[in-house]
Structure formats: C-alpha cells, structure tokens
Amino acid sequence: MSEPQDNPHRETVSGTPNISEGPKKTARSQDYYEAIKHKFAEERDLRLSLRPEGTSQYTSDLTGALAKYAVDTYGGEIKPREAINDTVECLFIGGGFSALLTSARLRERGVESIRIVERGADVGGTWYWNRYPGVSCDVPAYDYMPLLDELDYVPKDHYSKGPEIYAHCQAIAKKYNLYELAVFQTTVTSTVWDEAEQMWHLTTDRGDHMKARFVICANGTLSKPKLAKIKGLETFKGHSFHTSRWDYAYTKPDLSGLEDKVVGIIGTGATAVQAIPGLGASAKELYIFQRTPSSIDIRDDWQTDPNWARRLKPGWQAQRRELARAQPQMTEAQKAKYDAMSREEKIRRQENANIDAMMRIHKRIDQIVKDKATAQALKPWYMLMCKRPCFHNEYLPTFNRPNVHLVDTRGKGITEITERGPVFEGKQYEVDVLIYATGFEVQKTGIYNQIKGEHGLDLEDKYRDGIRTLLGIHSRSYPNLFIMGGYQASFQFNLTDMLQAQGDHIAACIDYARSHGYQSMDTTAEAEEWWVQEVIEHRGKTTRNQDCTPGYYNFEGESQRRQDGNYNGGFYQYCNHLNEVHTRMDKHFVFTKK
Ligand code: NDP
After folding, report:
1. Does residue 188 register a pLDDT over 80?
2. pLDDT tens string 298-313
3. Is there a contact between 230 and 417 (Cβ–Cβ < 8 Å)?
4. Are 505 and 471 in contact (CB under 8 A)?
5. Which atom of ligand 1 is nearest to the CA of 390?
C-alpha cells in the first residue's frame, strides 16, 4: 500500500482527528488547564440553563405549516405508477451507502433478488439530499468512498465534493444492477412480520404491499431534517428552506440569485460551515445566527496525484480499511509505561492534549479573523469531539467580508421570528431568505416506518424500557431484520468503515441462512442480554459526554439510559465481536427450517 499522499501529523488513516493520548511534554502548568476546563464547564452550564428542554427544542414533524421544509427539491414531479404487490428476497429501506455496500456484498454471494425502497428520486442517501453549495466530505475520500477497489475508481481529491460522491453512489447501483428492482419516491410506512409465512410485509405511502424474506433498515443516521421550534417560524413572509432541501430554483446553481438578497442562516454546525463561504461570496448581505461555534481546523486538501493513483495495486482500499480497523500499536515499552499510569493520569494527559488542540484552533481564529470581537465570538469553548470537528480554509476568512455579519446569540439561539425575519435581544433582522442549518433527527430506526415483529410487538414499544439489540444490528423477536447505523453499534468518524463492517456481517448472516436452508433467524435472549450489558459497561467509563456542551452527540445534555447510545468499546473490539458472532451463528441465533 502506498501512502505518500497522506499527511500523517493531523489525521489517522481513518480520518479521525489526531488527539494524541500520549504523554506530551508541555511547559503549561496544570492550573492553566484547570482554568480552561472551568471555562468549558461554565459555557456548557450556560447553554443547559438557556435551553433545559433538551431534544424537544427541535421538531422533525414537518407537516402542516412546516410541510414545505420536507419537500424534495431535487426529484421533480412524483411520477405516477401502479401499486406494487410482489415478493423479493432482500429489501432495503433507504438507498444510501448502507444499502449500496451491503447489496454489493450480497451480490458477491449470489443473491439476485434485491430491492431498494427510497424516499428520494435516486440512490445516494445523504449525498442525494445534501446538495447545498460547498457540500463535501470531511473524511479523506480514499477511506470514505466505499467499494473503490470494486469499481476501480480513485477519487479526484483528498476530500471529495458532494457531486462526486453522489455520482459514485449511482455508479455502485449501476455496477451491481440495483436500479432494476429499486423503487424511488416511495416511503415505507409499515414493516410487519408474518409468523405463518416467515416473511416481512411492507406497505408504503404509494399504496404498495411488498413482501420480503430479509429486511435491512438502511434509513441513515441523520436523514430526517429537523427545525428548531422558534416562536413565529411559520409567520416569516420571505423565502426559507432547510439546507438538505436547497432551493436552487431560487438561489440559482451559482448562487447569483442571491446577489440582491439579504440572507440569514440559522446554525453553525458542519453543514453551515461548508455553505457559509459560498453564501458570503454571493449574497448582498449575510447574517449568520450562531448559538455555539464549531471548531474549524485546517483543511489539507489536494488533487489526487495521477502518478500515485497509477501505482495503486488492486485491493489497495481494502488494505487501508484493514489498517484502519487494526488497533493502534504501541511498543512494549510504551505499553508498559501506559499500563503503569493511573486512570486519573491517563485522563489528565488526554484532556490536556485535547485542550492544546483547541487552543491551537483558537489561535488560528485570531490569526485569520480581523475584527477582535468577531474572532472572540467564533472561539469554541469545549473539548474537541464534543461536537463534530470541522475543517475549512474559507470559513473563517468569510467573516472579514464587509457584507457578512455574525450575530452571536451566546448560547441562547434565535427564539423569535417575525414575518420580516429573526429577532435577537429586541433587534429585528430583516432578511429576504432564511436558511435553516439546524440538523437532523439522530440514529432513529424506522424513521417514517412502524416496525412490528413477533406477536405484533412495535419496535418502539420494545425499546421504551431501553434499546435491546445484538451488536446494534439484530433485535430479538424481529427475525430476519437487520439495522444499520443504529444505536448500540460502534461509532466511527469515518461512518463508511462502520457501515462496511456491518454490511459484511449482514451479508454473512443472510448467506448462512440461505446456504443452510433456513427461513428465518432470530437472536437468542442470551446473546441480546450479553450485548446490552457490553454496551452498558462501556458507556459508563467516563463522564465525558455529560461534561460536553450540549449538541446531538450528547442528546442535547439530557441524561440517557446507558444502553441508549453507541457502543463505546472501540471499533476494533466491535469488529472482533462481529466476527465472533458470525463465526458462531448457532450460539447467537435460533433458526427456523423450511
Ligand atoms: P447540527 O445538528 O450539527 O447543527 C445544528 C446547528 O443549529 C447547531 O449549530 C445549533 O447550535 C444550531 N441551532 C439550533 N437551534 C438554533 C437556534 N434557535 N438559533 C441558532 N442556532 C441554532 O447539524 P448540521 O447539519 O450542521 O450537521 C449534522 C451532521 O451532519 C454533522 O455533525 C456531521 O455528522 C454531518 N455532516 C458531515 C459533513 C462531513 O463532511 N462529513 C458535512 C456536513 C454535515 P448548537 O451548536 O448550540 O446546538
């Protein structure tokens, strides 16, 4: 494997920002770090006190007056079609990377009958919906874009832009012949297990009644747009949309439609950070309504060197993924030193290194942003990784433009919108267009869909006393149902690493059932209980989540049952558990013969 293109001092091969855990020599006193931690805690507490409503400050119920924020602006007219009444072997709910890369593995194992049912008008998932200006991926493309070996494709840049990734999704669907049975502009509304038939019955918003032996919930981790519940939001008389439903008919593809417009954008998360530079360069005036700043690091981007690409040997990406999955190796001496350290000392060193990284990010702001008050307001006061870290070279300079205005709401957020635009501290901001960069519903299984397993048990009801799964993928009493990207699975900065691991496992399970002539497989009560306890044990190790500023990573500061989140035992360990399970299927599942 050749690696000359990678910048080793900033990212690991999987794209995770490199916060060194190692003992770093520093001249700073511990008091310096304690003072910063104190400030982090103050900023968190301020935000928690300003919005105690937690996750309920948002709504993803985009119906009634809010229905326009959910309308697909890319798919065109919904094409009329006959209702479908048929049976397939494997059915994917959602057509993003989860479905695409698992389908590829199923095809490799000889599965012919594969259907994708997708709400959008094409495959692509997040890359179908997120077409806002500047959209790109923050994970190196050589790691992020799946199936590069299989498609014999080398990304154009170190960090791919949205349109290239979207085109790659379409290329995967073509290569694996997934368009043939795919159904678009269709939302699955119910998925019900028929015990007599050992089949899933699915209905949709288009009047379909499909049956499937295996169902894979591939609806994405962040797919349903949400809006902040702001008083008067629906009274705004100007134009408005959510970033995942960009209205290019209004802005024009090159944003020239904004030349004479005053634009407001609410939110400064990873999406806004990418959209704001283009808006700043195009709008007559741009108002950015910030509640908490993102951390903005250098984006080390470059075009792929064709000579490097030419030298890549077949299987190069699979090798990279293997490397990313392997636990970071320490020398014996390093390991002995690390093991001898107390838990408190390990945490202290890791926190200090994290604070050093954040202070470097603060320094960069001072170097780039000319107005001192604006620079101060753009400084994030929390540990790195409390929020999704961002990488951008044009975001901070955008604040030096005379037409760009930061409205820092200091944790409070915009709480009122009138027919003319947002109001903050009694000041009315008149805007022509208001863009909501307020994010998405997080990791919900069956997001538009009611799932009923054995004895008609609704999955939501089963989870009411706490999520229960095996590996975040299987849940007892939901035979032949597989969940991708849900809770109780590992979390990876490079999401496709995780999805690929899950996809490989799901394909292995389905292959096992088919080759043994089994009609259904369901996890045992013991296997499920084992996994729930694993999740609980690993989620209780630190108070890091509680110490973080609120955001979707920590359920907006709400306290959660320890099992209702991701598995925190590490990706390496998660992959070992996946292997363990599909190499001992008989131990973890009960099977029903034909
Ligand atoms: P986020 O949920 O991260 O951000 C929502 C933003 O809205 C936050 O800045 C939040 O502030 C702000 N907000 C909410 N209510 C108000 C209000 N009333 N007034 C002002 N601001 C408000 O959504 P994004 O769409 O930005 O990102 C979602 C995720 O998508 C990312 O975390 C990432 O995982 C993914 N993504 C990945 C990219 C990549 O390169 N791989 C690029 C873009 C997105 P506060 O912070 O205070 O809560």
Report:
1. yes
2. 999 999 999 999 999 9
3. yes
4. yes
5. 40
